[in-house]
Structures are given as structure tokens and as C-alpha cells.
């Protein structure tokens, strides 16, 4: 096992989670470029330095957002994928909306499942959230499978819920609440 725990907010056997930094632009955008076929038509992560700076900057600076890079511990920390929490609301709701994407070299290897488990521990632990929702387009079977394996429940269906790639898309609303508290 690599001696890399200090780098990560949370680590499992194969994956460590760390926050986005602006310095990750080169690796992130190169891996996003390699992953266009995997991500289309569901997700459009930044593929240029300018777009990365805006995207990561918002995740780093805005209190209602958080972003995490899932890194492969055995591969020198190369980025396997990313997970974001948007629309973070505190008070009586303590909720956030989850987003995620694998990079092509990492897809289908169980790394995102491990990363999501780590994120849930971090969100329901140090971040103090009580509920995470994942809004998923009906045809997105790998995304649905990921949240089902993590224990999310289907709460409903919302027509024309999110503007993605120029059109309002229907979404299934999946969610998970913290085990206690
Ligand atoms: C959604 C997405 C992140 C899921 O990633 P993923 O790579 O399928 O997820 P995992 O890393 O958990 O891999 C799961 C697969 O790896 C397999 N696997 C291989 N080795 C494994 C291991 N050691 N442990 C666990 N699972 C393993 C699982 O059996 C599973 O296969 P299955 O789908 O045939 O059941 C990915 O498909 C993606 O980036 N999609 C495009 C972007 C997107 O849709 N984002 C979400 C918008 S709502």
C-alpha cells in the first residue's frame, strides 16, 4: 500500500480523494479529452485550460460547491475521475447535488464505486451533510448502476429538469440520506 494517506481527505484500498486544485488543469483536461466518447451525451467536463480554470475555480471558491479528484494510489496518484457536490444548502436541509465522471482509462474497474463510497463518508462526516441527491437521465445505465450499488433510492422523476447540451432533459431523482443524525 503506498504511503500517501497524508495527500488525501479519504483513502480506500485503490483510490484517494483530494480537492480540485488549479494546478490539475493539464492532467484533467487531457484525460477529459481522452474521455469524450465515455462522457457524451451525459457530461461535458472542461477540455481547455480556460474552461478548467473557471470550473475548478468555482468548485474551490464557492461555498455552495465542492469538488474532489479520485486518484489511483498505485499509479502515482493519476486522476481516475472526479466527483462534485453542487447546490450545497445547510440549515435544516443539509443537502447537496452530486455529479461525477470517470476518465476513460479508469471506467469499469470499480474505482468510481470506491471513490463514491469515500465521498459519502466525507460528505456525511466532515462536511456535515445529511442528504445527497443524484439526478440521472433515464438512459444512463452506468450512472444508475453506480448509485444503486452505493445504496441510493429512487425518489421520483422530473421532466425537463436540467439544461444539458442545449436541451431540457428529463431526470430520475436518486438520493441517499446519512445513516444517522
Ligand atoms: C457513471 C460512471 C462514473 C460510472 O463509472 P464506472 O467506471 O462504471 O463505475 P465503477 O468504477 O464503479 O465500475 C463499475 C463496473 O466495474 C466493475 N468492476 C471491475 N472491477 C471491480 C472491482 N474491483 N470492484 C468493483 N467493481 C469492479 C463492476 O462490476 C462494474 O461493472 P458493471 O457495470 O458491468 O456492473 C461512468 O460510466 C461515467 O463517467 N459516465 C459518463 C459520465 C456520467 O454519466 N456521469 C454521471 C451523470 S448523472
TrEMBL record:
UniProt domain N-acetyltransferase: residue ranges: 15-179
UniProtKB keywords: Acyltransferase, Transferase
One of the Pfam families matching this protein, by short name: Acetyltransf_3
E.C. numbers: 2.3.-.-
GO molecular function: acyltransferase activity
Keyword Acyltransferase: yes
SUPFAM superfamilies, sorted: Acyl-CoA N-acyltransferases (Nat) (SSF55729)
Record carries keyword Nucleotidyltransferase: no
Family: Belongs to the acetyltransferase family. RimJ subfamily.
Protein name: GNAT family N-acetyltransferase
Taxonomic placement: Bacteria, Bacillati, Actinomycetota, Actinomycetes, Kitasatosporales
Amino acid at each position: 500500500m503506498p504511503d500517501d494517506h497524508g495527500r488525501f481527505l479519504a483513502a480506500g484500498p485503490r483510490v484517494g480523494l483530494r480537492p480540485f486544485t488549479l494546478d490539475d488543469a493539464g492532467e484533467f483536461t487531457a484525460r477529459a479529452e481522452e474521455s469524450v466518447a465515455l462522457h457524451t451525451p451525459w457530461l461535458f467536463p472542461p477540455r481547455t485550460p480556460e474552461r478548467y480554470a473557471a470550473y475548478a475555480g468555482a468548485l474551490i471558491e464557492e461555498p455552495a460547491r465542492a469538488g474532489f479528484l479520485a486518484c489511483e494510489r498505485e499509479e502515482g496518484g493519476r486522476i481516475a475521475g472526479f466527483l462534485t457536490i453542487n447546490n450545497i444548502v445547510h440549515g435544516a436541509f443539509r443537502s447537496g447535488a452530486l455529479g461525477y465522471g470517470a476518465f476513460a482509462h479508469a471506467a469499469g474497474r470499480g474505482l468510481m464505486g470506491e471513490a463514491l463510497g469515500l465521498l459519502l463518508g466525507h460528505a456525511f462526516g466532515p462536511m456535515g451533510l445529511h442528504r445527497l441527491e443524484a439526478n440521472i437521465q433515464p438512459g444512463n445505465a452506468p450512472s444508475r448502476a453506480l448509485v444503486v450499488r452505493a445504496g441510493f433510492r429512487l425518489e421520483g422523476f422530473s421532466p425537463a429538469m436540467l439544461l444539458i447540451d442545449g436541451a431540457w432533459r428529463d431526470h430520475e431523482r436518486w438520493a441517499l440520506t446519512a445513516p444517522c443524525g
